[in-house]
Write a structure and sequence with these properties.
The complex is a heterodimer of chains A (414) and B (525).
Chain A: E1 11-19, E2 22-29, E3 32-36, E4 38-41, H1 59-68, E5 84-88, H2 99-105, E6 122-126, H3 129-132, E7 138-139, E8 144-145, H4 149-159, E9 163-165, H5 177-197, E10 204-210, H6 214-228, H7 230-236, E11 239-243, H8 252-268, E12 276-278, H9 285-291, E13 296-299, H10 301-307, E14 310-312, E15 318-320, H11 337-343, H12 350-377, H13 382-390, H14 399-409
Parallel strand pairs in A: 4-13, 5-6, 6-9, 9-10, 10-11, 11-12, 12-13
Antiparallel strand pairs in A: 1-2, 2-3, 7-8, 14-15
Chain B: H1 18-28, H2 34-45, E1 50-58, E2 61-68, H3 75-82, E3 112-119, E4 122-129, H4 131-136, E5 143-149, E6 156-164, H5 177-187, H6 194-197, E7 206-211, E8 222-224, E9 248-259, E10 265-275, H7 277-281, H8 289-292, E11 294-299, E12 302-306, E13 320-325, H9 344-362, H10 364-399, H11 407-419, E14 427-431, E15 439-443, E16 446-455, H12 456-461, E17 471-476, H13 480-489, E18 495-499, E19 504-509, E20 511-519, H14 520-523
Parallel strand pairs in B: 1-7, 11-13, 16-17, 17-20
Antiparallel strand pairs in B: 1-2, 2-6, 3-4, 3-6, 4-5, 7-8, 9-10, 10-13, 11-12, 14-15, 15-16, 18-19, 19-20
The chains are: A alpha/beta (414), B alpha+beta (525).
């Protein structure tokens, strides 16, 4: 029999509407509230600098300026686009910092920092498993930190995430069965430690899952069940985060398989009332994966596009920055003359040119996600089907995936 | 000083060679069956509810009579009938089908045309003699019109064409009721899809075709209507070896608004079916399905040209019959081709059709249909496998003992022979079928490079070297005369000598090499 939400006192996830397999709801953790489906932009909160530079990070810094409505970007309230963000423990030493600075970064919870006090969204703190378990620890300019579950949890606790995940061992497409089982067992051992360490935490805890199809995910959950125990896994987690999909990000069919199968396996293991986060996937996959029942996503694609001089005109299409007519977009960035001037290259620093582009890209993605939520809230599936047809369906390369999710998850066309 | 002459200006009017134009247009209509298509369109445009077409084969050409109960022709209609490019049906937007004024000119390929038409108490009789002969003599044929009164309520038109130069198309050996029915439903308004979209505007037309017995005496006549109707839907698979064969699913009618990049718009009216062979055979398909099924573009709801590229290449168009109508496609004079393919609106139609069909191809029913085909194919293969297994088993029973038929079986035979008393054991340690020396065998603790063949002769036929071969292993030696010839002529610049008594051969090429011959069949005796 399914467990009813909430399972813990920390988080509640209310599914308010469904359209086929798609669902829209609200995830409440402490005093934060996140409408789902939703996209959490990856923001490197700590990126080499100090508090006066919002802890630095070039284009990341610009994103933090938008996030906090800083005067540098001409102020304004962009908070609706930062109702949830993702940051990773693994990114802490990306900027070759000293131990002193590292210790400063983790000394205080993010939301208690003065510079971030205007941020009141949901902070998802990833464990960085994808980074550490390839054999790396935190590697600064004059120090190294061996990373294990205990260490990761300590950092997560000090940074104060609203959502935290156990340290996981992502799988690769080349892993054979034994390797995957071994990784699942190691992750399961981390899960036990994570639950022990985080007992009484005020953060919502997400269980990381790894697998590309039903059988892989089922094998993974079997290991969790064997090591952690069914009761504990069911009672102590507030959500599920599906990982190991980033290498397949361009294979939409495989992504749909993975998320669809994940929903099935979660149902069979009676985890289906928990919110399902898909790690590291966004852009054109969002409508497809929302249609098959994913509740949240995170990605830095908005940033990477900008860094490559690409300006999003839709979830699928980008234009080279030089070809953009900013009058065609009504987002607050493109409606701001100063920011448009910067995007046109009239600025000293490249980050000030590309930062607003990244923000525009993010706004575009966030607006699409909001539109998807509206569609799911409409009665029936027709509105969402129409949306999929008008967006993904118009792209010849992606069309078959649009048809697939419409047929398999939204009731079909005919 | 002499004055320059003033400039002179004259206006010139381009000339039309009327005779040539008539000849050209009449010749454009290659298929004599187009007579029927034009007749039906004219009758429909005249509001007829029935039309009867009779075709007889005569020694001096075909005789064609077309009679309808439409509203008849006025003087100007009659003129249009004979004139070129002077149709009274000038508005392509209205309900009429023919409007170029070209169609009826195919009838000029005859000895005599008589039109008898009654309208509101007036009867007009027009006669044109020897139109084709005159045109070929570069004379524009004329026609005589006689007007008389007739009783009211007797409207209609009768066209009689004698000595129609039909070529092979109307010849008794090629024209049949089946061919005409197929033509009617595939190429004329008898295959109209209008009733799916505009039932209130669709006027029923009963079409009767009579062929002379000398052409086809298989039935009295053919009676049909002006609707293309798909076989009944049958979504479930049947029993038997081809379960998908009778499956059939309908799609549409669906009207799509199409907008081109340049702002032009049109409506695309799509209706169709997907079905197995038996389902498709329920349509009048007297010919190859590959030439008939697929995606048809239509105007006036009459199919014109196929656009099978609208279905992605991984789906065979043969399972589909879709008619996509747009009044904004433009046709060639003989209605066989679309001539505005480079227009923005045509491109947009193509795009929209492609999208619609991608949805059909992704429909779970269609996937199931394909799956039924696949399973049926697997079942047929399993059944054929079973037959093949049975045959092989019977052959084994018949031959009464093991008999190698390929290299792998030679190896198995060799292994078997090791189990018998009285032979030195030779075991295969390594086998690579593709290698020149395809086996390494072990005998009494030593390894030998070996060449395994069904017959000893095969080694020589395949022209394989002997330099590194220790053993030649075969099921049988094969044709000893062949081997003797090799002995006689030499092999690869060396000399060969076989000693079958002692199962060995000598190969002499710079040095002499003794090679053991292992005949596996004799080891098993």
């Amino acid at each position: 029999m399914p467990f009813s939400s909430p399972r813990t006192d920390i988080a509640t996830f209310d599914i308010e509407s469904t359209a086929g397999d798609a669902r829209a709801g609200t995830l409440r953790i402490e005093d934060t509230s996140l409408q789902t489906p939703n996209l959490l932009p990856v923001v490197n909160l700590y990126a080499g600098g100090m508090d006066r530079s919002l802890y630095g990070g070039g284009i990341h810094r610009t994103m933090k300026e938008f996030m906090t409505g800083h005067d540098v970007i001409g102020g304004g309230d962009y908070s609706e686009f930062f109702d949830g963000i993702m940051t990773s423990v693994g990114s802490l030493t990306d900027y070759n910092i000293s131990r002193e600075r590292y210790e400063d970064y983790i000394a205080e919870p993010v939301k208690e920092r003065e510079v971030f006090e205007d941020f009141n969204g949901t902070l998802f703190l990833d464990s960085g498993g994808f980074k550490f378990l390839g054999g790396y620890g935190l590697d600064g300019s004059n120090f190294e930190v061996e990373i294990d579950q205990e260490q990761v949890y300590e950092i997560q606790q000090q940074m104060g995430g609203d959502i935290i995940v156990n340290l996981d061992r992502p799988i690769t497409r080349d892993d054979d069965y034994e390797t995957r089982v071994q990784k699942a067992r190691r992750t399961a051992e981390n899960v036990v430690e994570f639950l022990d360490l985080s007992e009484g935490t005020s953060s919502a805890r997400y269980l990381t899952l790894h697998g590309h199809n039903y059988s892989m995910l089922d094998t993974f959950l079997q290991e969790i069940d064997d090591v952690v125990g069914s009761k504990r896994a069911h009672n102590e987690f507030d959500g599920v985060a599906l990982g190991s999909l980033v290498p397949m990000k361009d294979n939409k069919g495989a992504l749909i398989d993975a998320v669809q199968d994940c929903r099935s396996v979660l149902q069979d293991w009676q985890f289906d009332d928990l919110p399902l986060h898909v790690l590291g996937i966004s852009s054109s996959a969002i409508p497809l994966l929302a249609a098959v029942g994913a509740d949240s996503f995170d990605s830095s694609s908005y940033l990477h596009s900008a860094i490559n001089g690409k300006y999003n005109t839709s979830l699928i299409e980008t234009k080279p920055l030089d070809d953009v007519d900013f009058n065609n977009c009504d987002c607050p960035v493109c409606s701001n003359e100063d920011l448009v001037r910067q995007m046109k290259g009239d600025t000293e620093y490249r980050k000030d040119e590309l930062g607003p582009v990244a923000m525009h890209n993010l706004i575009l993605q966030k607006r699409e996600v909001a539109h998807i939520r509206e569609c799911i809230h409409e009665p029936g599936s027709e509105r969402f089907v129409e949306y999929i047809e008008e967006s993904i369906g118009q792209n010849k390369g992606l069309r078959r995936f649009a048809h697939r999710v419409v047929n398999e998850s939204l009731g079909g066309y005919f | 000083m002499q004055k320059a002459p003033a400039d002179t200006q004259t206006k010139k009017r381009p000339k039309v060679n009327e005779v040539n134009e008539f000849l050209e247009i009449a010749s454009d209509f290659e298929d004599p069956l187009e007579v029927i298509r034009e007749a039906l369109s004219n009758s429909y445009d005249a509001g007829a509810t029935s039309v009867e077409i009779s075709i007889k084969s005569r020694p001096d050409g075909s005789e064609i009579i077309i009679e309808d109960n439409g509203k008849g022709m006025s003087q100007s209609d009659l003129e249009s009938f004979f004139d070129l490019g002077n149709s009274t049906k000038t508005n392509p937007e209205n309900d009429s089908i023919g409007y170029k004024g070209h169609g009826t000119k195919i009838l000029y390929k005859s000895d005599r045309i008589v039109v008898n038409t009654a309208r509101d108490g007036t009867n007009l009789r027009a006669v044109m003699d020897k139109p084709w002969e005159k045109l070929n003599n570069r004379v524009l044929p004329e026609y005589e019109v006689t007007e008389s009164t007739t009783r009211q309520g007797n409207d209609g038109t009768l066209i009689k064409v004698s000595g129609f130069k039909s070529g092979q198309g109307f010849a008794p050996e090629s024209l049949t009721y089946n061919k005409i029915e197929h033509y009617l439903k595939w190429k004329t308004l008898a295959g109209s899809t209008k009733h799916y979209f505009h039932p209130e505007e669709h006027d029923e037309l009963e079409i009767t075709v009579n062929l002379g017995d000398e052409i086809d005496d298989s039935r009295d006549k053919l009676v049909t209507n002006n609707r293309l109707e798909f076989p009944e839907p049958n979504p479930e698979p049947g029993d038997g070896p081809f379960p998908e064969s009778e499956m059939c699913q309908h799609y549409g009618p669906k009207t799509l608004a199409v907008e081109a990049e340049n702002g032009d718009t049109t409506e695309l009216e799509i209706v169709g079916m997907v079905g197995g062979k038996e389902a498709r055979d329920k349509l009048p398909t007297y010919g190859r399905h590959s030439a008939q099924f697929g995606i048809w573009l239509a105007k006036d709801h009459i199919k014109v040209e196929r656009l099978n590229e609208a279905i992605s290449h991984d789906n065979e168009f043969i399972h589909f019959l879709f008619v996509a109508n747009s009044q904004d496609i433009e046709l060639s004079a003989n209605r066989e081709k679309i001539r505005n393919k480079s227009s923005a609106i045509y491109q947009a139609i193509e795009e929209e059709l492609n999208y619609f069909l991608s949805k059909v191809s992704a429909d779970p029913w269609f996937k199931d249909y394909l799956e039924q085909r696949r399973i049926a194919e697997l079942n047929r293969r399993a059944s054929s496998q079973q037959n093949s297994v049975e045959t092989r088993k019977q052959e084994i029973s018949k031959r009464g003992g093991f008999c190698a038929t390929n290299q792998s079986e030679v190896i198995l035979g060799l292994e078997r022979s090791n189990r018998l008393e009285g032979h030195t054991k030779i075991t295969i340690e390594d086998f690579d079928l593709g290698s020149e020396i395809n086996a390494i065998v072990e005998q009494e603790g030593r390894l030998y490079a070996s060449s395994v063949h069904l017959q000893l002769t095969d080694h020589f036929t395949e022209d394989k070297p002997l330099e590194n071969v220790d053993k030649l292993i075969c099921w049988e030696v094969g044709d000893k005369d062949k081997l003797r010839e090799i002995e006689r002529k030499g092999y690869q610049k060396g000399d060969v000598e076989f000693d079958f008594e002692n199962n060995e051969m000598a190969y002499e090429n710079v040095t002499t090499r003794n090679i053991e011959i292992v005949v596996v069949s004799s080891r098993l005796k």
